[in-house]
């Protein structure tokens, strides 16, 4: 995934309404009306959110008669998860080193106290 695509995807994920829409689509495809139901937004307002999600490649919108059902595009989410995973490994290594350093400081402190009494 290119940096530009990643930026567009993270910008789409930054909004809680869009994340809620994705969570709902994780349960299966839904129409715009179904997606709008839990929100105090107009259909045009929900449609704007859906366009952002479409541009980010996170959803697709089909056509069935007069309905335009939306569905989650899990591949894009997997790409984001893979990108984050690389950094998670780095963070875990750094936290492990920090834990070791803090244990060493604590051991040194305890040895300093125990020697005088």
From TrEMBL:
Residue ranges occupied by any HTH arsR-type domain in the UniProt entry: 1-92
What are this entry's molecular-function GO terms?
A: DNA-binding transcription factor activity
Superkingdom, taxonomy of origin:
Bacteria
| Signal sequence extent | none
Pfam families assigned: HTH_20 (PF12840)
Which CDD domains has this protein been placed in? Answer: HTH_ARSR
Q: Can you tell me which residues the record assigns to a coiled coil? A: none
Q: What is this protein called?
A: Helix-turn-helix transcriptional regulator
Q: Which organism is it from?
A: Candidatus Dormiibacter inghamiae
């Amino acid at each position: 995934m290119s940096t530009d695509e990643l930026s567009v995807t993270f910008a789409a994920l930054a909004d809680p309404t869009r994340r809620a829409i994705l969570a709902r689509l994780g349960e299966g495809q839904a129409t715009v009306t179904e997606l709008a139901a839990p929100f105090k937004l107009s259909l045009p307002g929900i449609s704007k959110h859906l366009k952002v999600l479409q541009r980010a490649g996170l959803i697709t919108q089909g056509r069935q008669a007069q309905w335009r059902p939306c569905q989650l595009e899990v591949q894009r989410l997997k790409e984001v998860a893979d990108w984050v995973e690389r950094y998670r490994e780095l963070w875990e290594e750094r936290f492990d080193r920090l834990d070791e350093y803090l244990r060493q400081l604590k051991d040194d402190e305890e040895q300093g106290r125990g020697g005088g009494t």
